[in-house]
Specification:
homodimer, Jelly Rolls, 2 domains, 10 strands, DNA-binding
Chain lengths: ~240, ~240
DNA sequence: ACTTTTGTTTGATCTTAATCAATGACGATT
DNA sequence: AATCGTCATTGATTAAGATCAAACAAAAGT
């Protein structure tokens, strides 16, 4: 893990301002954040933190990918989430005094992050009701996300989860063909979806055979987004 | 669903003060809450709200049990959580404007609840940084809870989940024998643990055969808590 | 270019828990 | 006490996905 002091340029301010959680801060508050910022470089496979460690920082990913995971006693790995560039993470679990990270964070490829001190951010939260509300609404969304996640795991089967994942990659406007690349290895996506790599591969194969998609390496070509959508359920917003 | 106006007695204030989220409010703020409180009576099986409905209230359960659930398209029911007396619920999802309940809430047995208006509580949150922090720390805990839930679903098997549930019923100090009653039907617990009733029954039977527990009706007798603990993993606080 | 490592696919087999079906137990109602 | 409905248990069978094993492909190191 390579720490770098953070260059004091105009771009700095702009970069911090773009972060959702900091968008309501005044100049003085932002200056305090800025002063505690450190930039971190991670190699492929390197850990940022491990489950059970004290939480003293939260992070914003600038480049690369971070997977949040847990290991079972038998050594099985479950990926809970894959962080993409632009996202902040580990900021929602800082409220229990002496709290610990509930998951480990490991770099996929090499990554660049900014790290922020919890203590300083909490002090600012005490002054900024607007920022409290931003954080609360963010936490709200995440609570909802986990509920959908459990829905997927318990009421949906492996194919549904995988199709859901594929559809999640498609921007809203497309309804016909769409092509994208997996930005991370397939076995990581598989673990994220709680599917074994072998099963993951077989499901893709079957969707191919059914004429819904074509997969070549990391490239996925969806022949008809709407038809693929028929394979799943919109898990949110069901009345009755 | 039977609405009742809320009696204006001294007990009222005390009852509201005991609610964790209201413990930091001043008299004037509590009075505003009090004015919007309604008491609700639910029959066995009656719904308090359904998934997809607009969230305008949150609740505190006084008596009975409430299950939070989702239905799959095929009609399968998944219980996400069982609310016990004293708990507040549906308060963490009110921050998205025009937000909707992510689950349905149905009464087990008959229940008595207090309902509070989101709008009024949000106004108070804007004034009370302390209450914001209470809510945020509450949401933090719940986020962690869902992560543990997914750990249980993906890294643990049905027996582990059931043993975890049994151990969760045991207050900390006991390490030898302990006896308790299931307060809700077994099939609800089964769904809560994502296990079919048949499998649930078979696992209890097996634990019995292994000399770990004795089950008679709703009564569970654990012969040796520590020995039962060996069957599982403490999912939280694992470093390395 | 060749070797090694890592990741992916394919086939055969196994395991866990679900499903299907029937019976039994219990509580509530009459 | 008899009946009904709900809930729980038990047995037989099935199915989804995991595991094991091997081949294959692609990337990385030498």
């Amino acid at each position: 893990m390579q720490y770098q002091s953070y260059p004091d340029t105009l771009t700095t301010e702009q970069e911090l301002r773009q972060i959702y959680l900091f968008s309501c801060l005044n100049d003085q508050q932002l200056a305090r954040i800025k002063q505690s910022v450190r930039q971190i470089q991670l190699e492929d496979g390197e850990y940022l933190f491990k489950q059970g460690q004290r939480t003293e920082h939260f992070f914003m990913l600038k480049e690369g990918h971070i997977k949040l995971l847990r290991l079972s006693l038998e050594g099985a790995e479950k990926v809970f989430e894959v962080i993409l560039p632009g996202q902040t993470f580990a900021e929602a679990i800082i409220f229990l005094p002496k709290s610990i990270y509930p998951v480990s964070a490991q770099s996929i490829n090499s990554s660049v992050l900014l790290s922020f001190e919890n203590k300083i951010f909490i002090d600012i939260l005490k002054e900024s009701s607007a920022t409290c509300f931003q954080l609360m609404s963010y936490m709200s969304q995440r609570l909802r996300m986990w509920i959908n996640e459990i829905d997927n795991l318990t009421l949906q089967n492996a194919t549904h989860r995988l199709v859901n994942y594929l559809l999640y990659q498609v921007p809203g406007e497309h309804s016909n063909v769409y092509e994208f690349n997996f930005s991370i290895p397939k076995h990581v996506i598989a673990s994220r979806l709680s599917i074994k790599p072998e099963t993951f591969s077989r499901i893709l194969h079957r969707l191919n055979r059914e004429g819904l998609i074509t997969v070549k390496g990391r490239t996925v070509h969806i022949h008809n987004v709407d038809r693929l959508r028929l394979q799943t359920v919109n898990t949110d917003s069901i009345i009755e």
